[in-house]
């Protein structure tokens, strides 16, 4: 499933780059492709997730590609009024500062609720949430609750049974999205969601600037710096390109 999802994902992302459409269109198309694979999982009937359960949002760090963060920022701009958007920015800022403090060992390692989790315990960006969020399904909600309790106490060892076929398909699509972006000279690194959305909200017409290869996410928390502009690619020494001279 991983390889087929990767293949279909490549064809889709290449087409989206050619179309030069809106970021929300990207997410719609990626989600439709993902949904086809999620329906095929043999563990689909065993999924124990339910609407309004925020366990994952309370314990897991979500990593997203620049395209996904930009789509979330556009959704927030389009659908929130000024006051609500101001409050979301404040939450994102608070979560980002706490995450940085944890990375620098200046704060205890405790789970942080997603900055985009609403006060009602529901995802405030559900229609445009990153594909990793829409591709992870627990097979035991009681284990989710237990993992959340343990994490709050500082124990992150609790494992949760998950729909592995869904994860494979989602990983294939997400990985291909990153690779194709990098192949086109774009930022395809992964960023912590709250910090990436906060960065995107600072830039009007963010997608246009991103596609022009501007470094939009230099102040976001990069969780996987596998390519430029986060990772500097060191060229091979010139002598390695020379052909060894051989005696006649």
UniProtKB/TrEMBL annotation:
Q: Which domain of life is it from?
A: Bacteria
Q: What is this protein called?
A: YkgJ family cysteine cluster protein
